[in-house]
Amino acid sequence: MAFVPLQKRLKTDIAQALKQELKVSNVHALPRLLKVIVSVGLSQKKYSAKDMQQFILESLATITGQKPAVRRARTSISEFNIRENMIVAMMVTLRGKQMYDFLDRLIQYALPRIRDFRGLSTKLDGGGNYAIGIIDQSIFPELPAPEANKIFGMQVQITTNAKTDVRGFALLKQIGLPFKKPAAKKASVEKKA
Hints:
Elements: H1 6-11, H2 13-22, E1 33-41, H3 50-64, E2 69-72, E3 87-94, H4 96-110, E4 130-134, E5 154-160, H5 165-175
Antiparallel strand pairs: 1-3, 1-5, 2-3, 4-5
Helix pairs in contact: 2-5
């Protein structure tokens, strides 16, 4: 069977399935994907070196196909050894075709490469949006295997226009995110003697 891109499936198969599941007749009332934000927080102890920051910048650009924005600290916080104007994070906001391409690669290639993967959590944020924490960037096939001291984690935030978790979960499930199966409740029946 030929691979069908996510952008095309959203207009055909996924739209039909969502119309039936949410009992909506108007296609324009269905929940949609708005943007995907990929971000990396830089711990000052581990990622303060310039070469490590450059490695993270290049890796994020390779994964997303877009140059990351560098986020700097606005104020100094002595407890965390953060000084004003210090680099604390890097992020990329994806929309349109780049967003659909990234989600295709994430769902089809990257998530299945996670070791001992048992599925994603089914918790959304209350407004239909979903966040995925990735511990190791090497699950993306476009990156070469990193050295042990060059492994970093990232957060992928999927933003939808669904106002409720039920509508957002229905959209994400139809897209193909591999959620955990709900655990079967053990029914213990006690017999009265």
